[in-house]
Write a structure and sequence with these properties.
By secondary structure, the protein is of the alpha+beta class. Helices cover 28% and strands 25% of the residues. Bound molecules: adenosine-5'-triphosphate (ATP) and magnesium ion. Its EC number is 6.3.2.6.
């Protein structure tokens, strides 16, 4: 962990569960001794309203964001369960975290962020401009911001410590990390999930530019989809009618937060050692609305809060 890693707020105490760990957004719990789930190989994964940007967890939460992430992931798990099994066991959770938590199968997670990209942007575009490649894979010349790739690519990244950047890695590196059979399975499942999800999003007028999955191995040795899936935090969703290669597409995510943090109004140096300032109310409200809109456009119904 880097010395500038942000301090996280305390995870709430929950009856029947013992806090195990916290990431940037989620608090993870194990069954408490003697509780209903005790002795079962499950975790409670609670999505907080924390938001991260530029590798910082911000002090200002986005109300209901954790509920959007949880409900949207649950919806996608249902859409994708014939592609690969997932970790969702139950949405019956302590009332304190109702709507924002899932009881999940506990997995041994692969230390690889399984990214699929159908379009060129972000760190993929940076590497392409430097080397003409993404994760070491050569691409044709002449691509630009938001270009559609000739075919979707598996562009893995290594999970970084809290406060650090994830690092794009080559497929060969994935083979070294997890072995050839697992690497091949991760690539195949990632691309199959992307193809299915991109098709569903397209029917709703949304481009799934890229997305990240986390997979692990269940107690029975099988490959299982874990973490969150296809949320605005893990994916770039672009309104199809606003996409145009050569310019940055407006995505259903933290764009308002990033734009404000890098604007003069924030008086914040992204490359300095100070944490980002608190977000103004209108940035919070617009970001919240964007998350809720993503949920509604994808699932076809407003989120029941
Ligand atoms: N079924 C599962 N079994 C075990 N671990 C899981 C499971 N699903 C998700 N996780 C892990 O739980 C954590 C979720 O927390 P969160 O998303 O906030 O973390 P993060 O900041 O993205 O990542 P990091 O773990 O690097 O802090 C991640 O480390 C994720 O890999
Ligand atoms: Mg995460």
């Amino acid at each position: 962990m880097s010395p500038s890693a942000p301090a996280l707020p305390l995870a709430p105490a929950l009856p029947g569960w013992t806090h195990l760990s916290s990431g940037k957004v989620r608090d993870v719990y194990t069954p408490a001794p003697g509780s209903a789930w005790s002795g079962q190989d499950v975790l409670l994964v609670v999505a907080s309203d924390r938001i991260s940007a530029y590798d910082h967890v911000l002090d200002t939460p986005i109300p209901d964001k954790g509920k959007v992430l949880t409900a949207l992931s649950a919806w996608w798990f249902d859409q994708l369960d014939d592609v690969v099994a997932n970790h969702l066991v139950s949405l019956e959770v302590p009332v304190q975290v109702a709507g924002r938590a899932m009881v999940c199968r506990r997995l041994r997670m692969y230390p690889v962020e399984c990214v699929a990209r159908g379009y060129l942007t972000g760190s993929g575009l940076v590497e392409y401009r430097q080397n003409g490649t993404v994760c070491g894979q050569a691409l044709p010349e002449g691509l630009t911001e938001a270009s559609r790739l000739p075919e979707p690519l598996f562009t893995p990244a290594a999970k970084a410590e809290l406060g650090e950047h994830d690092e794009n890695i080559t497929y060969e590196r994935v083979v070294e990390m997890v072995g050839a059979p697992a690497a091949q399975a991760l690539r195949e499942v990632t691309l199959a999930l992307y193809a299915r999800a991109a098709g569903i999003a397209a029917e709703r007028g949304i481009i799934l530019a890229d997305t990240k999955f986390e997979l692990g191995v269940g107690a029975d040795g099988s490959l299982v989809l874990g973490d969150e899936v296809l949320t605005p935090d893990s994916s770039r969703f672009w309104p199809a009618d606003q996409w145009s290669p050569g310019r940055v597409a407006p995505s259903f995510d933290k764009q308002y937060v990033r734009d404000w943090l890098t604007s003069p109004a924030a008086r914040w140096d992204r490359d300095g050692d100070q944490p980002p300032p608190a977000l103004p109310e209108d940035v919070v409200a617009r970001t919240r609305a964007r998350y809720l809109e993503a949920y509604e456009r994808l699932t076809g119904s407003p989120l029941d809060l």
